[in-house]
Amino acid sequence: MKFLLVFDFDHTIIDENSDTWIVKCAPERKLPNGLRNSYQPGHWTEYMGRVFVYLGDNGVKEDEMKRTMTTIPFTAGMIDLLGFIGENKELFDCIIVSDSNTVFIDWILKAADFHKVFDEVFTNPAAFSSTGYLTVQHFHAHHCAKCPKNLCKTKVLKEFLDKQLERGVSYTQIIYIGDGGNDLCPVMFLKKNDIAMPRQGYTLEKRISQLAQSLSPVQCSVLVWSSAVDIMSYLKLLIKK
């Protein structure tokens, strides 16, 4: 009996968006209007690439970025939840699928000593160039019309499940924990026995209820959470069964 926990990162594990938090490093903690207005829907990764160039041009170095990122607060109850999962790793496999990037997630998880809780992190690859600029790339290419160009979370989840099956690992239940519009695609992929846990008041919860109103509800069960303590309560019930 093993359960798979799939977490989004921004506004789910942490209570902010890591990509917008980095702007605190910019001169006067803001971006010029031209740069801010250059974002085009579905092309967030390219936009962040330009943000990182701007920060680099203004002399913002890796250590300053790291200091800033590790001050992001975790979502209410999340530290307790991740501690609980860490103590019960024999029952839970745990992955992150996020539109953030490898550098930010790595910094934040390691600073709080939570990197061992997660078996794998799937996010946009990032690295510092020889000139000290942070660069970010698309996670993969895909053909899903519902998802942003750089990442289809369903494709990630399917590939992970296939790889696990090859290793002889299958899951009693998948629990998907997220908040955003790009979490809807993988939630629609979940089966009847699985659970979607959208964060209360965020886009994912609204999209799921719109689907239910238009009589095309998701197949899985839906449990809304506002604090990660709600998620922990569910997991405790699950392992008692």
From TrEMBL:
Mg(2+) binds at D8, D10, D179. InterPro entries: HAD-like_sf (IPR036412), HAD_hydro_PyrdxlP_Pase-like (IPR006384), HAD_sf (IPR023214), Pase_PHOSPHO-typ (IPR016965). It holds the Pfam family Put_Phosphatase. Transmembrane segments: none annotated. One of its GO terms (molecular function) is metal ion binding. Substrate binds at D19, D99. The keyword Chloroplast does not apply. The active site is at D8 (nucleophile), D10 (proton donor). Its cofactor is Mg(2+). Keywords: Hydrolase, Magnesium, Metal-binding. SUPFAM superfamilies: HAD-like. Belongs to the HAD-like hydrolase superfamily. PHOSPHO family. This is PHOP2 phosphatase. It comes from Cardinalis cardinalis (Northern cardinal). The gene is Phospho2.
